Amino acid sequence: MILTDRDILDAINDGSVLIEPAPPEEFYAPNGVDLRLDRRLSLYREPEPGEDPVIDPAGPGYSFREAIARMAGEIDIGADGFVLAPGRLVLGWTLERVDLRPGARLAARVEGKSSLARIGLIVHLTAPTIHAGSTGQIQLEIINLGPRPIRLRAGMKVCQLILEQTLGVPRRGYGGQFAGQRATG
């Protein structure tokens, strides 16, 4: 069951979910709440001469965090924004920290905004699920699939959080490789 704007506000008021900083009233839609883009982005770089460009996620000793650290560097989005070229992928984070309290029977999805998708901006490739018990800023896989460059600005509305009630309480909260993810710096 998807929560309405009233249900989301009730969940915030009773402590089942925390969204910090608190979104203003105009960020709420009938079935979700807008989240904004943080000032930090991780930019992928071209392989260095002689560096093996192949990523082997099923290989022995593979670590997502180590792979990203080798391939990407972080920047702050400046006052003029960051221009995302067509076909380019960057990692971003929501400005807001979202905590789905253990035992609250809530999970969530992060979905793109249709107004941005219609110009080619996608905010998640395959990872919309925010598991019950998750806490932290939400990492976004942002790609420009459109024909023109798109300027990203810190603080812009970039996605929607859709909250859903789970049928039960999980045995344990989310503890996978993205637990407590947050923008560094």
UniProtKB/TrEMBL annotation:
One Pfam assignment: DCD
GO-annotated molecular function: dCTP deaminase activity
Keywords, in A-Z order: Hydrolase, Nucleotide metabolism
InterPro entries listed in its UniProt record: dCTP_deaminase, dUTPase-like_sf, dUTPase_trimeric
GO biological process, one term: dUTP biosynthetic process
Residues in coiled coil: none
Highest taxon above the source species: Bacteria
PANTHER family, per database record: DCTP DEAMINASE
Protein name: dCTP deaminase
